[in-house]
Design brief:
The chain is α/β, with parallel strands linked by helices and about 425 residues long. The protein has 2 domains: about 160 residues, Beta Barrel (Lyase, Ornithine Decarboxylase, Chain A, domain 1); about 180 residues, Alanine racemase (TIM Barrel, Alpha-Beta Barrel), CATH 3.20.20. Helices cover about 30% and strands about 25% of the residues. Helix 4 runs parallel beside helix 5 and helix 5 packs across helix 6. It is globular. Bound molecules: pyridoxal-5'-phosphate (PLP).
Length: about 425
């Protein structure tokens, strides 16, 4: 599978953004995250336009946890997207990137006072309130500063998004948001409306990630409108903004068939309009927060292939283990979720890929990256490209085994620029004070 601007050149090398990946690996080293800059920009614009074509002033906010660095924040902002952040660190990086902070939403199920204070200090656009304790503290902090913080209330609508347990966040049994079904969310909403430091302008829900169907979003639209109907009946409140989170999936496997952006926009916008109309409610402004479906397919990781071993397998046959010079520390998702990824040999991308091998990382764990990958017979020194690592890889990377986290390169029109440098021993030792 090829994504974005990827092609295979005359030497049989994989190219991204007009840059030969073999050359990228030579210049910048491996493991290396490579992002397809022009395709990323296009994807951000397509997302915004798909929603703008069908709704009045929709807010499309890039969920920065999926892939965060200043270059990406600026790219998304220039393409007209808002941003969502979920920690003090993410907020500070976004501020450092110099984008308008009134277009940023702060998330998180445990925002500490320092997070809320920074948000108030920086004049953040919205806080997505996640708990009772949080809105009480936020109101007090805002009053101390003599401001009212524009906020949305995150509710938990009791929807199972049919995705992996760890990334399904809209069920009743979740740490995120306040439960609709028990009446807790409505009570919280009433209390929020009475607080002097909070200006509640809407509601929020994010039901999960890697969702490949439209039905969960349509069901969410209906549940949120039910909630807004009860809010209009009891405290007599109407939402100006309804944010439906992120969650659209990408093509990690041949069989994954994510809906087109126009279909997603149609399902959400028509769904909200219809459900609002049926209940006699005004159609609110709509917001969404895609992360994975903006960056996921447009990033890949390059690894050098090292030792290759063929060993007896449990089923009585043999298995070939191909070790690469990264693994759990630069991509924890296969170990965390059994997440699948497409692969190819970047330096022999045109060759027939019919040998089944297991791709292993080089950590002191059984950090299998790809349990069954089909490649041309690999050799030590070959370059492996793991596709679709644009989301939740760079941002989830760790220093396990004291590995240096990889550099990030933006490739565009035959030129590559390093936007995040590789970590060094000095970086890691800087925190060790003994
Ligand atoms: C509140 C919120 N919004 C948006 C997202 C982005 O989700 P995705 O990357 O699946 O689009 C997440 C992901 O965890 C989230 O928690």
């Amino acid at each position: 599978m090829l994504f974005g601007t990827q092609t295979i050149n005359e030497q049989g090398h994989l190219e991204v953004g007009g840059c030969d990946t073999v050359e990228l690996a030579r210049v910048h080293g491996t493991p290396l995250y490579v992002m397809d800059e022009e395709a990323l920009r296009q994807r951000c614009i397509e997302y915004r336009e798909a929603f703008e074509a069908q709704a009045d002033k929709p807010i499309v906010a890039f969920a920065s946890k999926a892939f965060l660095c200043k270059a990406m924040v600026r790219l998304a902002s220039e393409a007209g997207l808002h941003l969502d952040v979920a920690s003090l660190g993410e907020l500070r990086l976004v501020a450092e990137a110099g984008v308008p902070l009134d277009k940023v939403t702060l998330h998180g199920n445990f925002k500490k006072d320092e997070d809320l204070e920074a948000a108030l200090e920086l004049g953040i656009g919205l806080v997505a309130i996640d708990s009772i304790d949080e809105y009480r503290r936020l109101s007090e902090l805002a009053v101390t500063r003599g401001v009212r913080q524009r906020s949305i209330l995150r509710v938990s609508p009791g929807i199972d998004a049919h995705t992996l347990d760890a990334i399904s966040t809209g069920r009743n049994d979740t740490k995120f948001g306040i439960t609709v079904e028990t009446g807790a969310a409505l009570e919280a909403l009433e209390e929020c409306l009475s607080l002097p430091g909070i200006e509640l302008i809407g509601i929020h829900s994010h039901i999960g990630s890697q969702i490949l169907e439209l039905e969960p979003f349509q069901l969410l639209a209906a549940r949120l409108m039910d909630f807004l109907l009860s809010a209009r009946e009891k405290p007599g409140w109407s939402a100006e903004l309804v944010v439906l989170g992120g969650g659209l999936g990408i093509q990690y496997e041949e069989t994954d068939d994510p809906p087109a952006l126009q279909s997603l926009a149609g399902a959400i916008i028509d769904g909200i309009a219809r459900e609002a109309d049926e209940r006699g409610l005004e159609t609110p402004r709509i917001g969404i927060e895609p992360g994975r479906s903006i960056v996921g397919e447009l990033g890949l990781t390059l690894y050098e292939i090292g030792p290759i071993k063929t060993v007896p397998s449990a089923d009585g046959g043999t298995r070939t283990y191909v070790s690469v010079d990264g693994g759990l520390s630069d991509n924890p998702r296969p170990v965390m979720y059994d997440a699948p990824y497409p692969v190819l040999l970047a330096n022999r991308a045109g060759e027939d890929a019919s040998m089944e091998v297991r791709i292993a990382g080089r950590h002191c764990e059984t950090d299998t990256l790809i349990p069954a990958a089909f490649l041309p017979e690999p050799k030590s020194g070959d370059l492996l490209a793991v596709q679709c690592t644009g989301a939740y890889n760079h941002t989830m990377a760790s220093n396990y085994n004291f590995f240096y986290r990889p550099a990030v390169v933006f490739a565009k029109q035959g030129k590559a620029r390093e936007v995040v440098r590789r970590e060094t021993q000095e970086d890691l030792l800087a925190r060790d004070l003994d």
